[in-house]
Amino acid sequence: MKPVAAYGITMLGASFWGLTGLFVQNLYTYGFSPLHVVTIRMTLSMVIMFSIIGMFRPYLLKIHFRDIPYFIGLGIISIALFNWFYFTVMDQASLSVAVVLLYTSPVFVAVISRFVFQEIFTLNKVGAVLLTTAGCGLVAGFFPLGSMTLSPAVVMFGLASGFFCGLYSIIGKSVSRKYHSVTITAYSMMCGGLFLLPVSGIEKNLTPFLEPMVWVYAGGSVVVSTILAYVLYTAGLKYIESSHAAVLATIEPVVGIAAGVFVFGDELTRWQSAGIILVFSSILLSVFSTGNKFGPRGSRARFHD
Question: Is this prediction's pTM over 0.90?
Fold first, then answer.
């Protein structure tokens, strides 16, 4: 796959994540908690994906037993926890704040990837991480001093969502060259869904499922912002560095914030708007990250066709 195509499908998958709030915010109106919504999302994804794959591409369900820990890590440690923290911030603050705080993830990914995969630091990559950090700081209200309107708990939840989201790029990189992106997504959802079903307590709140619109919002969350998003993002991850993919995924705030402002009426301060611009600028630096290297001599980032 050509680099441009890899960048494109990675960003397209991330943009579908940005539509998550459209479905999740509406599910909250039916009395679901953030944990309930994560459970619905992952369980339905598991059922739909295994049904479709089993009918049309059953060979994609073949995996090696030794790789199961990776799928457990992706499904439970990354996707389930990331979504729970993310949806909690969305519930307690706003969609716009949630999606921007989520994008502290490139900072975590860049640091971890340096030691796990020996990915090199370029000047542009370092700049992208710094812009992302500064932008998220402005959105959270850390700067200017005294302008913070978010509670410490919300900020910590936002940082946690970024950390666990970033782990998807780290763990997923280990299996992205061994399995199809559909396979990885299906088994990740299965592990997360089977873990959440018995612990979420959703069986005590089944009445809303009698409402047709609940299934519409749940279906949209699953098909658009879960299955398509993860399949496309994971496919792109096979050909680009984890830290690049994580920063490219900041296209999600473009979509998420637009939904928050124009659909749900989120209000942003001038400082928060400036922070959003900084986060978006990091995307451009990531795409054109071909500058000087900070890392082992002779080390090069490569695309694998």
Answer: no
